[in-house]
C-alpha cells in the first residue's frame, strides 16, 4: 500500500491534492493545524469512496518545538511520500511587520518543513521509491513587495529542495517544488476584490488557478514513473511572473 502525508490537507490546495491522491489509490495522513472538522469530514468522505485505503487525520502546529516534532514523526507508519502544502502569509511593509510574525512565517513555511524532512528521511528511504513535494510560489522566483518575508521563505524552499535532492537521489527519493501563481483559496481572502481583479488582468491565462490545476502536478510527481525529475521548481502560474 502506498501512503502519503499531506501537510496542510485542510487548505484550499491541500484538499485538492488529497482528493486527487485518494482517487489515485493513495492512503493518506491528512494533516491539519486548527480545522479538525474539515479533516474529519475529508476522512469520512474518502473512506466511503475508497474503502481499501487508509485515511488518518493528524494534528500538528508547525510552531511546535523540536521535541514535539520528534514525537510526531515517531508516531507515523511508513510512508512513500510527503507533500508540504501548509503555509501562511502576511501582506504588509516589512517595517510595519511584527517581529514575532516574521518568526512565525519563517518557522511555518521553511524551518519546520526542513526539520520534518530531516526527521522523515529514514521513513522514506526504506521504500522502492519515495517523493517529497514542497508548495513554493512564483514569489520564490520573483520577490513580491508587501510579502518580502513570505517570498524569502519560498525562495529558501526552492534552494533547499535543489540541494537536498542531490543528497538523496541515490536512494530513489525525489525532491521537488511545485510553485503556484495565484490560486483561488482562503490564503487570498485577505486581498480586496480590486487587487484580485488586477492580479487576474496580469495572468496570461486570464484566471486564477483552481486547486486541481496545482494538484495535477503534485499527483504526477508522486507517480512511480516520475523518477528522473528531482531538485526542480516547477512554476504553475498560468504564465504569470515567469
Ligand atoms: N493560494 C495561493 O494563491 C498560493 C499561491 C502560491 C503558493 N501557495 C502555497 O500553497 C500552499 C497552500 O496554500 P493554500 O492556498 O492552500 O493555503 P490555505 O487555504 O490558507 O491553507 C493553509 C494550510 O496551512 C495550515 N496551517 C496554517 N497555519 C499552520 C501552522 N501554524 N502549522 C501547521 N499548519 C498550518 C492550515 O491548517 P488549518 O486550516 O487546519 O489551520 C491549512 O491546512 C502554501 O504553502 C502557500 O504558500 C498558495
UniProtKB/TrEMBL annotation:
GO terms for biological process: monocarboxylic acid metabolic process. InterPro entries: NAD(P)-bd_dom_sf, Sc_DH/Rdtase_CS, SDR, SDR_fam. SUPFAM superfamilies: NAD(P)-binding Rossmann-fold domains. This is 3-oxoacyl-ACP reductase. Belongs to the short-chain dehydrogenases/reductases (SDR) family. PANTHER family: 3-OXOACYL-(ACYL-CARRIER-PROTEIN) REDUCTASE, 3-OXOACYL-[ACYL-CARRIER-PROTEIN] REDUCTASE FABG. It comes from the Bacteria. It comes from Lactobacillus bombicola. CDD domains: SDR_c. Signal peptide: none annotated.
Amino acid at each position: 500500500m502506498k501512503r502519503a502525508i499531506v501537510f496542510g490537507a485542510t487548505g484550499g490546495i491541500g484538499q485538492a491534492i488529497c482528493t486527487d491522491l485518494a482517487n489515485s489509490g493513495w492512503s493518506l495522513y491528512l494533516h491539519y493545524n486548527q480545522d479538525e472538522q474539515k479533516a474529519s469530514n475529508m476522512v469520512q468522505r474518502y473512506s466511503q469512496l475508497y474503502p481499501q485505503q487508509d485515511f488518518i487525520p493528524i494534528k500538528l502546529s508547525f510552531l511546535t518545538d523540536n521535541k514535539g516534532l520528534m514525537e510526531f514523526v515517531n508516531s507515523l507508519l511508513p510512508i512513500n511520500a510527503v507533500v508540504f502544502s501548509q503555509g501562511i502569509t502576511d501582506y504588509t511593509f516589512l517595517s510595519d511587520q511584527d517581529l514575532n510574525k516574521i518568526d512565525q512565517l519563517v518557522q511555518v513555511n521553511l524551518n519546520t518543513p526542513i526539520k520534518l524532512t530531516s526527521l522523515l528521511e529514514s521513513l522514506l528511504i526504506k521504500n522502492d521509491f519515495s517523493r517529497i513535494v514542497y508548495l513554493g510560489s512564483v514569489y520564490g522566483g520573483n520577490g513580491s513587495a508587501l510579502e518580502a518575508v513570505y517570498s524569502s521563505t519560498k525562495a529558501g524552499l526552492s534552494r533547499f529542495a535543489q540541494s537536498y535532492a542531490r543528497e538523496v537521489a541515490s536512494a530513489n527519493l525525489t525532491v521537488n517544488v511545485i510553485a503556484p501563481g495565484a490560486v483561488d483559496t482562503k490564503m487570498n481572502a485577505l486581498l480586496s476584490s480590486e487587487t484580485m481583479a488586477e492580479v487576474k488582468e496580469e495572468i496570461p491565462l486570464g484566471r486564477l488557478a483552481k486547486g486541481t490545476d496545482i494538484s495535477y502536478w503534485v499527483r504526477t510527481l508522486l507517480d512511480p514513473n516520475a523518477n528522473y525529475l528531482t531538485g526542480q521548481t516547477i512554476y504553475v502560474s498560468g504564465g504569470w511572473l515567469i
